Each structure stands twice: as structure tokens, then as C-alpha cells.
Amino acid sequence: MAGSLFIHGKTGMGRRLGAGLVVGLLLAFILIPILALFFRISLAEFIASFSDPMVWNALVLSLVTASISTVTIILIGTPVAWINARHDYPGREIVDTLIDLPLVIPPAVAGLALLMTFGRTGLIGGFLYGFGISIAFTTLAVIMAQIFVSVPFYVRQARASFEQLDPVYEQAARSLGSTTAPTFFSIILPLVKSGLIAGAIMSFARALGEFGATIMFAGNFQGRTQTMPLAIYTAMQGDIDASITLSLVLILISFMVIALVKFQLRREVRC
Amino acid sequence: MLNVSVRRELRDFPLAADFSVGKGETLVLIGENGAGKSSLLLLLSGLLPPDSGHISLNGQLLYDSRARVDVPSEERDIGFVFQNYALFPHMTVFENVAFGLRRRKVPPAEIRSRVDENLALLSLQNLSSVRADRLSGGQRQRVALARALAIDPALLLLDEPVSALDALAQDRMRSELGSFVRKSRIPCIAVTHSFRDAASLGDRIGVMEEGRIIRSGTLSEIMAGRNDFLNRFFCGCRQEHCHQ
Rounded to whole angstroms, how far apart are CA atoms B131 and B126? Predict the structure, then answer.
């Protein structure tokens, strides 16, 4: 008996060591490159980089475009997620799959597809150009590229939140005389808001980090289409400090995003 | 007066119910789990559409498949207490009870007085500002009842109306519900698994089996023709052992 316990204990320690090694290796692989960025420049150099107009322009443009993208995604994605969560219609699964498509399409391909659609000679862009409207290589193109790649993050999370909500709340509201719109805004939205906020934060983060689709469809023009990831890439050719400063800003935002999403989802579970 | 004749194909069997409930009368539906009792309440409330038939309440047609009438649930004036209460967890007790009145655009002063009146009826005055998700099971059930009664319903549907209360509170609630239904002269249908609910709340008892009301009558009429299910329901024993 004692022998088997000893063997068991030895095996357990081996397992713990093995598990610790695997977890440690993965963490090191993720953390060491991130820490390398922090060690690369001093705080003074970090602050000084903000006086570089390229850094400042990219930061402002990224925050503004990602915010507009996220608001647009919320406005369009919420009803779509609601319809797909609560209503059965022919082709619903196909619609769901198509909405998820940007998750697996390489961003560069997404950018090229947007260019072929909204470029001056594109399917829709050619028609719009006839009226003097040009979308490609503008700030609007940045926003469209961000929406394209980040919309599934919100819709997936919103649909899951709506599906988890017991339909009895809607039934109770209806039996009390509430029609669809007031029920949605006064009962359903407050009950799923944590999930929706978590989805919106994920979308915002994806929009902020968008590179491939943006450079293909919107180009890389400082102050107009050069977002933070594009500015990092550009600065790499000359001013590495500016590149690292922007990277560190993106890392800090990413940390905040993960913390906020975890906090929001934990709140939803508690509700 | 509620007149019902509805058909609906459920997952396991067709639901087919024909019955009437008078003003101030309470029909208690009993039956095995999955007999279609709760589905019948959903059909009456308009939350589940029947396949065919008609429902009329106080002479007004709520549903008629031939005349293509289907009054939406939100316009039926039905007080519904759901089995899991369905209180809005993000709202206070007051806001829950006031919800139906606000949707009816009742003036704020009247909302305040009607909510207070219903909270007092169910001894909930002290919980008025408490969020619904902070309440105990019994408190939730009372709030759900107060919310259903506050809209002055034309029909009351109760799915296990007092199951979460302690024995003393159950007795009090049955008596209050009974007097409320009689005083307000509205029809009431209650689904229950409790013999005491059926005996003290029901003017009539309907026994449901696989979507049909196979027997209906007063307590003594039902007791006279018991089957195995009713023996178990009323005294918890099998027919061969039952001498009551």
C-alpha cells in the first residue's frame, strides 16, 4: 500500500514538473518578446517619441477609426445577432458561416477583395466613381477594412449572449403588454449588456490591430490612412524608437482589452 | 368567461383542449410532467400560437383560426405567473410590478398607488427598492404574483403559483388568490402539482393526460373516479393500497 502511494506520489510530482515545464515554455515564448520591447527603450525615449508627428497622427487615427468601426459594428451587428439567435429562417446557418468568414480569410485577401469591390474600377466603386465618389485609399477605406475583419468578433459574442438569455423574460414582458422594441431595449439589452460590451471590446481590439486589409485597400498615408500597425511597419525602416513606442501603446491597450473582457464576461456569468 | 377550443401539435403528442372557465372561477389543471399543462397556458396567453381553434374572453375573440384573428400576447390583458417567475433581475421589485402599468401609459401617480397597493397585498412593501435578483424564492413568487395582478388582468394564468412558499404562506396565498379571483370576477387557470392547491384553490379540477383534459369536475367528482395517477396525486399511493 505504502509502495503504491510512493509510486503514485513520484508519478504525481513528475506530472507536475512536466505540466510546469510546458506552461512555463509557452509563457516564456509569449512574454519574452513582449518584455524585449519594454527593455529596448527608456521611459524618456518613450515619452519623447510622442513628439514625432507620425506617432501622434497614427495614434489618433487608429483610435478614431477603430471607435467609428466599433460603433458601426454594434449598430449593424446587434440586430443581426438577435435575428440569428432568436429567429429560424431558411439559410440561417449559411448566413452565420458567411459572417464568420472574415475570421479565416487572410487580411491581405480581405483588403484585395475590398479593393476589387470598392476601388475605382471595382464592382461598386466603379459605379460610385461615376458620381465622383472614391472610397479606396481614404480614411473611410480604413474604417471599412476594420469593420470587415472585426465584425465577426462582435456578432459571435452577441449571438451567444442572446442565445444564453432565457426567452421567458421576453414572454413575461409581452404578457405584461410590452411590444417588441420596448422589450428589446428595456429587458433584453440590459440583461445581455456585459456580453455585448465584451464583444465590442474584442472588435475594437481587432480593428486597432488591423494591418493587412488596411494597407491593401486604404494604403499607407500619414494622417489619412496610416494607422498604428502601419506606422510601426513604416517606422521600422528608419526611426525604431517610434516603432517601439507605438508597439508599446498597442500592447498596453491589448492588456486593458483582455482585462476588460474578462471582467465583463465574469459579470455576465454572475447575472 | 373564457371559452377555449384549441389544437396544437406538440413534440410528443397533439394538444387538444376544449373547456370554459366562468367569471370568478378557478380551474386547476393537474397531470403528469409533460402532459401539456404549461403549453396550454402559453397557448392561452398568445405566447405559443395554436394550429387551429378559437379562444374568447368575455365575449372578445382572442384567437380564431377560421376568422384569422390572433390578438397579440401584449394586447390580451392576461396576468401570467411563470413557473420560474421570470422577474426582470436588473429591476427593483417596484419596477417589476410597475412594468405592465408603464407599458399601458398609466399616469405616474396612479402607478405608484397601484404598485403600493399590490405590494401591500402580498406583504412586499419593505422590498420595494430591492433588486429582483437579490430575493429569495418565496419573495420572487410573491413579486411575480403582484406583477401579474397589478395590471388588473382579464384572465389570470398561474403556473405553480405557490410552490416556492413555506406551508403557512402557501395557505395564506391560496386564500388571498381565491378571494382576489372571486372579488375581481375574472377567470383563473392554475397549473399545479400540489394536492392542497387543487383542493383549496380549484372550483374545478381538470386532469390532463397527453395533451387532453381527460376528466373535469369538482374535487368530489374527481375523487369519485380516481385512476392510478389521481391516487398518487391525492394520497401518494397506488389504487390497490388506497382506501381513502
Answer: 12
Model confidence at A10, pLDDT cuts 50, 70, 90, reads low
Running DSSP on this structure, what letter comes out for residue A74? Answer: H
Q: Which residues of chain B have pLDDT under 70?
A: 225-228, 230-244
- Residue A203: CB atoms within 10 A of its CB come to 29
Q: In this predicted model, which residue has the larger pLDDT, B170 or A147?
A: A147
Nearest neighbour of B74 by CB, restricted to A174, A187, A271? A174
Which positions in chain B touch A176 (Cβ < 8 Å)? 74, 99-100, 103, 147, 151
pLDDT digits (tens, 9 = 90+) for A55-77: 899 999 999 999 999 999 999 99
Cβ A178–B80 below 8 Å, yes or no?
Answer: no
* Min Cα–Cα distance to chain A from B111, Å: 14
- If one counts every other C-beta atom within 10 angstroms of the C-beta of residue B50, the result is 25
Q: Which of B197, B193, B192, B159 is nearest to B175 (CA)?
A: B197
What is the spatial distance between Cα B118 and Cα B142, in angstroms, rounded to a whole number?
10
Please enumerate in sequence order all residues whose Cβ is within 8 A of that of B56, keeping only pairs 6 or more positions apart, or say none: B2, B3, B62, B64
CB atoms under 10 Å from CB of A220, counted, come to 15
Domains observed in chain B: 1-77+155-219 (3.40.50.300), 88-152 (no CATH)
Ranges A116-120, A146-150, B121-125: which has the least confidence: B121-125
Q: What does B36-98 look like in DSSP terms, one character per residue? A: SHHHHHHHHHTSS--SEEEEEETTEEEEETTTTEE--GGGS-EEEE-TT----TTSBHHHHHH
Lowest mean pLDDT among A23-32, A260-269, B218-227: A260-269
Topology of domain A51-270, per CATH? Answer: MetI-like fold (1.10.3720)
Q: What is the ipTM of this complex?
A: 0.87
pLDDT of A258 over the 50 cut: yes
Say which residues have a Cβ less than 8 Å from residue B223's Cβ, sequence separation at least 6. Answer: B230, B234
Residue B127 CA: distances (Å) to CA of B85, B96, B131: 16, 12, 8
Of B72, B84, B100, the CB nearest to A176: B100
**Residue carrying the nine cell digits 397533439:** B14
Cα separation, B158 vs B141, whole angstroms: 11
The average pLDDT across A101-129 equals: 94
Pairing of the two strands B204-209 and B212-217: antiparallel
What is the reported pTM? Answer: 0.82
For residue B80, give how far its alpha carbon lies from the nearest alpha carbon of chain A (Å). Answer: 7
H or E, element range at B13: none
Give A50's contacts (C-beta < 8 A, 6+ positions apart). A56, A245
Radius of gyration of chain A (CA): 24
